[in-house]
TrEMBL record:
Protein name: FAM69 protein-kinase domain-containing protein
This protein's GO CC annotations: extracellular region
InterPro entries per UniProt: FAM69_kinase_dom, PKDCC
Cross-referenced Pfam families: PIP49_C
GO MF annotation, one: non-membrane spanning protein tyrosine kinase activity
Domain FAM69 protein-kinase: 46-175
PANTHER family membership: PROTEIN KINASE DOMAIN-CONTAINING PROTEIN (PTHR46448:SF2)
GO biological process: skeletal system development
């Protein structure tokens, strides 16, 4: 039995559902095609493009998906399963992931008489579940959604180019969702822990004070270089928590001689005092004076007219 969703079932507190702006009824055509719904406009999800975006944006998409699954597991209609769980069912709206096709959603949970009736099968794995006292397979809708999120999204978007200190936590999330040891509640808590560490900068390892002493020199145009992944294809535009992190990144890259801290904020900077900002490889040459023996070319914290492009940041 499929669940039908009108405007009252797309509340404001479920921002991961594409909003229903209106619907119209036409009684002059085919009886099965008389109702037309107008949904929020979004861009199709392109996984290949997403794999080329910075980790922070890919983590945002996975977090949006986890929040959606949390809502579906605890919806007023009961636990809802997405029967056709594919990336094509999702769109990007202002940088946020939203599900747009709910035609194949269902609140029906598999009936059972014993535990052997409750096997959740996927092409590469099977999971035995429990038969509840009311004759339903416990949590089957929630677990089916979660494993699909793991195999279609988490495995591709979470681990690659993640901050080194966060990789053990991300690996735990992948292993626990891949084995269905986590439910959606535990998965959301794990994602929120990663988000807290990332936003606060607590994941950063202590490094030498690379910004202890800097000596500015003249600006030179045309010195930008490209890195991957970057917010801009025109140069190296990265998200950083602090100037110290930017200095450490620049110091670790052979071609980086300087950088600019821009005024742009990424989505993780909306809720905390220690915002994550964007740093751009630029052409204002500065030198670190950590010691007379180690005068390493280091970044600038001053505004300059470097050529790195600044895209719209969601």
């Amino acid at each position: 039995r499929s669940a039908g969703f009108g405007q009252r079932h797309r509340p404001n507190q479920a921002p991961t559902l594409a909003q229903l702006h209106g619907q119209c009824y036409d009684n002059s055509g085919d009886a099965e095609l008389r109702v037309t719904a107008m949904l929020e406009l979004g861009s199709p999800l392109e996984m290949i493009q997403l794999l080329q975006t910075p980790w922070e944006e890919r983590f945002k998409i996975c977090l949006s998906l986890v929040k959606l699954l949390f809502y579906l597991a605890h919806s007023p209609l009961g636990s809802i399963v997405l029967l056709d769980f594919q990336p094509r069912q999702f769109v990007m709206v202002d940088g946020n992931l939203k599900v747009t096709d709910m035609d194949d959603a269902s609140t029906e949970e598999l009936s059972c008489k014993e535990d052997n009736d409750c096997t959740l099968d996927f092409p590469t794995k099977s999971f035995p579940l429990k038969c509840s006292v009311v004759g339903k397979c416990e949590g089957i809708n929630e677990k089916k959604n979660l494993f699909n999120a793991y195999r279609y999204f988490f495995t591709y978007l979470l681990p690659h180019s993640a901050p080194q200190a966060l990789r053990p936590l991300l690996s735990d999330i992948l292993n626990a969702t891949g084995d269905l040891r986590y439910g959606i509640n535990e998965t959301l808590r794990a994602f929120e822990k990663v988000l807290h560490l990332y936003k606060s900068g607590l994941y950063l390892q202590k490094r030498p004070l690379l910004l202890k002493a800097l000596v500015p020199s003249k600006t030179v145009e045309g010195e930008d270089y490209k890195c991957w992944p970057s917010y801009s294809h025109l140069g190296c535009l990265l998200s950083i928590h602090s100037p110290e992190e930017a200095a450490a990144i620049c110091n670790s890259q052979l071609h980086c001689q300087s950088f600019i801290i821009t005024q742009h904020r990424t989505w993780t900077g909306e809720f905390v005092h220690c915002d994550r900002v964007l740093a751009c490889g630029a052409a204002a040459f500065l030198y670190s004076a950590l010691s007379p023996q180690a005068r390493i070319k280091m970044p600038s914290l001053f505004s300059s007219s470097g050529g790195c492009g600044h895209p719209e940041i969601p």
